[in-house]
């Protein structure tokens, strides 16, 4: 074990202190439920107040920029029309795509930061959407791509000269080779060496250059103050040093705001077989959290990979690590773990089994961590009648699970008790308030049935069932 890593910091304390006070013989059940939630909220608040009860919606996928025709509404307008549903489902934050002008249609190859006319819509539509979300008490999270920026003009056949644009303060961003890392294999500039991993599809910005960092901070503050975003989703944070990510958060929204970062770590495989022990990738994520001073949550790629393989192969023993805890990042740092089933990238190349998405959400929405829901699992743009009905059924499953999470006050610091993790069966209790059963096995051992005596079935679907403690119904 790496002696520099204090794993005890990243494991939830096995304690029932949240419910010990509620064991008296005669007690008002409504008061019990209220006190239970208040105690849970208080405990979460002591850890990271901006993250405690976050439920994040990723509002876009890889095709969201598309319009069915010239007259069809933009992505921003379509999303604004769904703000009521977003609030009703209980989301606290909505993650929106990169807003700036970009070489690609998706926004991940930015060329101008301050030009917010994109395939998703224009600046006015974006501001209107954010205002509508805020009116409903929902925060907007901006996907920001600052690892790289696409140059528009070539010098000696190399695209290393950026478009001239002006910041809010009048700062000119007419950058040249000095702004690009010097060791880039495709777009070499005259800046310092890259402080992270290199991406070969665009020039990597030199974050060691103070001028570059000042420009990034000013742009992020403009997105917050003028456009209305409350936090950020940082794309490809492997591309620059962790201390720079911390600086960008501290000097803009601050540590109390919810931010999340993408650090897509590789899993441990033997050919095409996922190994049981995935401590290496989750340790890499913990290292990033420590090095960045916990400035942002991280997407829990290990949990996605483990859960996905468990479902595909019928190997639910994977869902408990050697310490009987959650096997992904959420087992070590639930307060900083964004647990997701699918996103815009994985849906195209590493997809969760489509016929077991409900099971995936039964796990993500009943377990400690910060749950993330993918918009195409809630609504369909332009799908046929069969697809629309499939999505509607899945949405109602997700709605029920979100309601259970809210009623039981499950949060990132909830306490998990895994009862069974076997080939075809997984059973766990969260805070002694929610019980979940995953897997194709119908019968469960008598001791589980005894533990469910004070619970009532609250949701079920293909290969999953969820019970809620009766006093919380």
Describe the model:
Helix content is 30%, strand content 16%. By secondary structure, it is an alpha/beta fold. Strand 16 (426-430) and strand 17 form a beta hairpin. Residues 1-29 and 43-48 have low confidence and may be disordered.
The total count of strands amounts to: 19
Structural class: alpha/beta
Count of discrete alpha- or pi-helical segments spanning 4 or more residues: 13
Radius of gyration: 23 Å
Distance from first to last alpha carbon: 44 Å
Shape: globular
For the largest sheet, list the strands in their spatial order: 1-2-5-8-9-12-13-14
How is the secondary structure organized here?
Blueprint: H1 29-45, E1 56-58, H2 75-80, H3 83-89, E2 93-96, E3 101-102, E4 110-112, H4 123-135, E5 139-144, E6 153-155, E7 158-161, H5 210-227, E8 231-234, H6 242-250, E9 260-261, E10 269-270, E11 273-274, H7 279-291, E12 297-299, H8 301-313, H9 329-332, E13 337-340, H10 346-349, H11 357-364, E14 370-374, H12 385-407, E15 416-421, E16 426-430, E17 434-438, H13 446-451, E18 455-461, E19 464-469
Parallel strand pairs: 1-2, 1-14, 2-5, 5-8, 8-9, 9-12, 12-13, 13-14
Antiparallel strand pairs: 3-4, 6-7, 10-11, 15-16, 16-17, 17-19, 18-19
Helix pairs in contact: 11-12
What is this entry, summarized?
The protein has 473 residues and is an alpha/beta fold.
Notable traits:
473 residues; 8-stranded parallel β-barrel; alpha/beta; 5-stranded antiparallel beta sheet; 16% strand; disordered N terminus
